[in-house]
Amino acid sequence: MEKNKYKDLVSKHTPKENRLFNALLAFFIGGCMGLIGELLRDFYAYVLDIPKDDTSIFMITTLIFIGCLLTCLGFFDKWVNFARCGLIIPITGFAHSMQSAALDYRKEGLVTGIGANMFKLAGSVIIYGVVSAYVFGIIRFLLFGGAI
Amino acid sequence: MTFKYKNVYLNETTIVAGPYEQQGPLAHTFDKTYDNLYFNKKTFEQAESKLIEESVELLLYKVKKIKSDIDIHIGGDLLNQLTATNYASRNIGIPLLGVYSACATSVEGLIVGSNMLDAGQIKNCVVTVSSHNASAEKQFRYPVEYGGPKRLTSTFTSTAGCSAYLSYNRCGVKIDSATVGVVQDLGITDTYHMGAVMAPSAAYVIRKHLVDTKRDANYYDLILTGDLGIYGLNILKELLQTDYHIRINNLEDAATLIFDSDKNKDVHAGGSGPSCLPLVAYGDVMQKMQRGELKKVLLVATGALMSPTMVNQKLSIPAIAHAISLEALV
Question: Which of A96, A136, B42, B258 is 20–30 Å from A30 (CA)?
Answer without folding.
Answer: A136
